[in-house]
Amino acid sequence: MNSIEIMVDEHKYIMRMLKVVRNACYEVLKGSEINYDDFNQMIDFIRNYADKHHHGKEEKFLFKEMQANLGSIGTNLITHGMLVEHDLGRLFISDLVEAMQRVKDGDDESKLDVISNAIGYTHLLTRHIAKEDSVVYNYGGKNLSSEIIDDINQKTESYEKEAESQGIQAHYIELLEGLEKKYNK
């Protein structure tokens, strides 16, 4: 099992969800009411598939080893780059949830915050994924020892088997496909 290939493949699903989020925001911009059930499903995907499942593997396995074994370049790349962006993404989603509640409570102007936080997240993750796919993963893959890469691959395999036994991948891919049918016309 190649952990980096798995993470690149997961990026494809995340990018598809970013398109759904953008299209849902455009509907709100055009005057449609916020579909809270759909937005909550998007948030569920982002928090549990993109962040917990995908970023979890990055942070626990690959990034941890890059910080520990690749000197100041590895530390700076991960600590001051990728992890900061993961936290910024979490902030966008937290602020999105709060804005949705304000709209529910009658603050129509907070629709601006719903759109801006959701779109801010899509822009952040689009750039973040491009950096990981073209720079970070390649740098880690080329500069970590084969023993460390093997260890990351073994840990990823165990992590994936556990997630598969819980139906995580299947659930979130099905959720994504359902939202795509609605928003990606």
List keywords for this structure.
89% helix, elongated, Four Helix Bundle (Hemerythrin (Met), subunit A), 6 helices, single chain, mainly alpha, 185 residues
Description:
The protein is elongated and about 55 Å long. It has a single domain (3-183), classed as Four Helix Bundle (Hemerythrin (Met), subunit A) (Up-down Bundle). It has helices at 3-29, 36-69, 71-104, 111-143, 146-165, 168-183. The mean pLDDT is 97. The chain has 6 helices and no strands. The chain is mainly α.
How are the SSEs ordered, and which strands pair?
Elements: H1 3-29, H2 36-69, H3 71-104, H4 111-143, H5 146-165, H6 168-183
Give a brief outline of the structure.
The chain has 185 residues and is an all-alpha fold.
**Major sheet:** none
Oligomeric state of the chains present here? single chain
How much of the polypeptide forms β-strand, as a percent range? Answer: under 5%
The geometry reads as elongated
Helix coverage percent:
over 70%
Number of strands: 0
Mean pLDDT: 97
Number of domains: 1
Number of helices: 6
Q: What is the CATH homologous superfamily assignment?
A: nmb1532 protein domain like
| CATH top level assignment | Mainly Alpha
Q: What is the string of helix and strand elements? A: HHHHHH
Ends: how far apart?
A: 35 Å
Q: Which structural class should the secondary elements be placed in?
A: mainly alpha
